Structure prediction request, 388 residues.
Amino acid sequence: MGPLKGIRVVEMVGIGPGPYAAMLLSDMGAEVIRIDRATAGPANAWDVLTRGRKSLAVNLKSVEGKEAVLKLLETADILIEGYRPGVMEKLGLGPDVCLGRNPKLVYGRMTGWGQYGPLAQSAGHDINYIAITGALASIGRAGEAPVPPLNLVGDFGGGTLFLVVGILAALWESAQSGQGQVVDAAISDGTISLMSAVHSLVSIGLWNDERGTNLLDGGAPFYDCYQCADGEWVAIGAVEPHFFAQLLERIGLAAVETAGGDALQGFDAQFDRARWPALRESLRKTFASQPRQYWCEQLEGSDGCFAPVLSIKDAPSHAHNQARQAFIERHGVVQSAPAPRFSRTASEVQGDPVAVGAHTEQLLIELGYKPAEIERMKSAGTVLQGDA
Prediction:
């Protein structure tokens, strides 16, 4: 069992970064109990973000249902919620109430804009949150529109991962002080932090606001993607001169000159922006001359900083991913294996997605409710027992 064995997490049902955070904690051994709405719902085997949970279905508008959740929180270490600011307070489950019942509780709040600020009450999605950070404007080809980077940069990078880091830090501190606290994780804040290295480059004049013209945004010909003779693509990231020299040697360009008569090799030639167009054209023609598999045979495993650009469906079959068992399949659904890896307390997927309310009776009994009380609550619509 993973390193978080013995930690209990209560997750308020939500979408995106909150459920992903709960999934990561579950994979690392925590017991995660999702508070679902008291309306029937099936188990969706395809919904990978909800794997490894228990489900308690409660009507939070009822006094008795709310009390059941508070009793559960008395036994918990962590709460995760992703509602707009103020919603949990209106439900009677705000930080003051919950920490009053459990002073050591780590109260994790996941939002796009944060708990305060002029945009705090506004709706949004990943693309909106990263738009005000400088990240979205930096992604795309020169002279073209910004490109939404899936929802990886905001929701799951600036959101989930900062929430998890904050929760685990607060959990450690709580173990020392005996006091819980609120973790205010905003996707916009986290994305700004992710841009820290770019801020450094901006400060010394090595990055400009014109996307697609910089070192790491496709502007440099040695950090870009190229199409092969079969229409497939490869990715090159040979930034360091000694890696770039190996790339050129392996693809047969070591002794070739660009159309302008300038040698390709050497630091001055590689980082002279005036030579980049000719260098890009030489690389483009070279990679277009052979199918991708040919270039894989020449470059994979070398220091040429090369990789084939694989589709989502093809990625699980790559030899490196197979060797690391980076993908798993459960009931026909291909999904990520737990990450990161631990040498002694290995993570594992604790179970498949469950139906809404599948553990309602079990959890209420653990909290001290009698069978007759549970039946009365079910009849009143206060709780729901779903399919196990």
Q: What stands out?
A: DSSP finds 15 helices and twelve strands in the chain. The chain has a mean pLDDT of 95. Residues 138 and 209 are 7 Å apart (CA to CA).
